[in-house]
Amino acid sequence: AGARAPPEFLYVEDSGVMRKMVSASLQKMGVVVHVACDGEEALAKLRAREYALALVDLGLPKVSGLQVIQELRAYEQARPGGGGRRQPAAIVSGTVVQAEVDEALRAGADFFLPKPVTADQVMKVYAEVLRRKRELAPESTAGGGPGGGGPGAGGGGDGGPEKNARVLVIEDENSTRKFLIKILEKFGYQAAAARDGAEGLARLQEREYFVVFCDLNMPVMDGFECVQRFRHWEADQLRRGQARLKTGGLGGG
Questions:
Q1: Can you give 100-160 as a three-state secondary structure string?
Q2: Which of 79, 130, 77 is nearest to 108 (CA)?
Q3: Is 61 within the bounds of a domain?
Q4: Whole-model pTM?
Q5: Is 94 part of a structural domain of the chain?
Q6: In the structure, how many helices (H) and strands (E) does the chain have?
Q7: d(CA 187, CA 185)
Q8: What is the pLDDT of residues 154-201, one digit of tens each?
Q9: How many Cα atoms occupy the beta-carbon half-sphere of 201 within 13 Å?
Q10: In which domain, by residue range, is 128 found?
Q11: Between the CA atoms of 19, 94, 30 and 249, what dihedral angle is there, to the nearest 10 degrees?
């Protein structure tokens, strides 16, 4: 089989320094980066072709980042046969205020990234884009395929998460916790929350979750200790024949 083509991103940023820095970092990771300096140029490029991911600065000249996203979504809906297909897009902003995050999501953004954005953050977003595509792919039926009913599958016949699957967000920072819950609920998950590691551990021991998002730096009990204690508890459950393995991730901050 031939080599897989590298992903192509569109990075929309009016700061030349930031544009060059982030583009160079992404290129080192094998990404082909296209750039635009303002909202008008971004819209022209987004209408001309599709990108694996669009990163759009919020405060752009001529046409704002929110307007770019809104007009892109309107264009996608209006084009022939394009009602169900949309380009993944993230808003990038120097401020993370809940009202701003809400407005970006309402405009049609899929993700919200704080500045200064790093290539690692962008690639994590792209990994999430690919994960969502795999869940929606028709070939991800139950069985031996990538989306089959192996460990971590949600139990649905299509290999993706069950409808209304429960997830747990363990995060002490209010705005981040609310933002994550809003994103998860937007994609059909039932999101529960805990404000520190101790509360998170208690919730994990009470019921089963499809996936767990756990912050690293938290009061009372940090993310490392929370996960470590849960795994010890889970191992004890396994010995008793009552194991409930969960997938999850630790986040810094």
A1: HHHHHHHHCCCEEEECCCCHHHHHHHHHHHHHHHHHHCCCCCCCCCCCCCCCCCCCCCCCC
A2: 77
A3: yes
A4: 0.55
A5: yes
A6: 8, 9
A7: 5
A8: 334 344 445 568 899 999 988 888 888 888 888 888 899 999 989 999
A9: 19
A10: 8-134
A11: 170
Count structural domains, the chain: 2
Q: Which residues contact 61 (CB under 8 A, 6 or more apart)?
A: 14, 38, 39
Residue holding tokens 């209408």? 47
Confidence band for 133, pLDDT divided at 50, 70 and 90: confident
**Separation CA 89–CA 29 (nearest Å):** 19
Both tokens assigned to 2: 């031939």
Which of 134, 152, 187 is at the close of a domain?
A: 134
Helices 223-239 and 197-206, axial angle in degrees (round to 10) = 20
Q: H helices within 12-97, ranges in order?
A: 16-28, 39-48, 65-78
Comparing C-alpha atoms, which of 61, 129, 62, 65 is closest to residue 95? 65
**CATH number, residue 225:** 3.40.50.2300
Q: CA-CA distances (angstroms) from residue 138 to 4, 81, 146, 161?
A: 20, 18, 12, 14
